Amino acid sequence: MAREPVEPESTRVRFPNPRRAPRDVIAVGTDFRPGTLLTAYRAGIFPWPQSARGDEEEVVGWFSPDPRALLPLDTLDWSRSLKRTLRKHPFRITIDTAFEQTMRACGKDREEGTWITPDVIAGYTKLHELGWTHSLEVWEPDSAELVGGIYGVAIGASFAAESMFHRRTDASKIAFATLAERLRDAGYLLFDAQVQNPHLASLGCVRVKRSVYLDRLARAIETRPRVNVWASDP
Description:
Blueprint: E1 25-28, H1 34-42, E2 46-49, E3 60-63, E4 68-70, H2 80-88, E5 92-95, H3 99-106, H4 118-130, E6 133-139, E7 146-155, E8 158-166, H5 171-186, E9 190-194, H6 198-202, E10 206-208, H7 210-221
């Protein structure tokens, strides 16, 4: 989306200050309206439904983890194999071409169940229509088959990556690395990966204290990127 984001209607939801929170869970409650989601992300908080399979009742926790996982954009250093893949991969890359399709693919076929429920998809898709959420997609060349992608929330010069998926070897890594390089080149200050895991660590993500993350977030959301990342395809 090339246009400026549109501010959603306020929902009057206010979250506790994460700086004073004794735990990662800041609040509990189901509200995926665009105004609520944007209020949360501006405060460094994101929703994470914890029971979303079968007939179990869904409990939506709003998290601000300590420590936080970040990808340092100023020192990107991919592995030798990933550098080779980025140079030679055959896939077609697009921006914001299939946001909802990417979200649904990220939540599909997970043995542990998924937090990307229909209500979550509806809320983030509305935010996408307003210009706040974005996706980078990986396609088979000369095909309409979506084989990988990543999506998240962009505010100022901050991007919070929500989820990624792959249906071909390395497709999610290509999505992650391509987007990270594009954000770096545009002047983004923060790539928020939220919760560290071995896969993210292998891609260069590091843990920082929540207080450090919140300081960086405050600066990033007040910063205007040099380039509109979402205006054109890579």
